[in-house]
Amino acid sequence: MNLTAAWGAVLDSPLLGILLTLAAMVLARWLAAKAGHTPLVNPILIAIGLVGGTLLLTGIDYATYLEGAQLFSLLLGPATVALAIPLYREARRIAASAAMILPAVIAGSLAAMVVALLAVRWLGGDEQLALSMAPKSATTPVSIAAAEAIGGVGSLAAVFTLCAGILGALLGPELLNLLRIRDPRLRGLGLGVGSHAIVTARLLREEPQAAAFAALALAITALVTGGVLPFLAPLLLAV
Question: Membrane-spanning regions, if any (predicted)?
Fold first, then answer.
């Protein structure tokens, strides 16, 4: 069999992106399990490294990989909706704290947008970079759409959102431990506002009650970001 022709057929197939992504995630989860699920061995971060390294070593361009991998982008929405399950399980506790939750999460969402946008501008970044950074605390589909709606770059917004999620998953719970914040409601809300679904996935395994509040926080943050950022961004850029 002609190996060159076979390799060309692999590159032309949309299955490449699917298989590579699945293989990287399975291997990353196996490594995380072997490491005892320590936060420093984050499966998402490892999978990104594996996929990126494979593309560099094989010379496969990102556009070719994305032809198949974009299927997983379509699954981001249903995966986010599935976070309603922990919300349902903690519905009574959430209802009892509703008066505290809504203003706290709205304030946190607004602060995240304001700090991100102004920090980039004051550090010398251009307007487009600032607009791409502003929605980083929302989930990836929302951050991409919000950034593009206000003149940012969707792909950059996705990278910033992913970085916020991974950093939150790696360092967030440990930082809250150092600050002696033990209340699962506060832990979940704080991490959900700042690091959305990635940190919520970690909490589902380690702190189920906090995960419910994190899921609620990321949902409210997405609504606030999508609804307020188009009006807030022009005001902040004028500062």
Answer: 6-28, 40-63, 69-88, 100-124, 144-172, 210-237
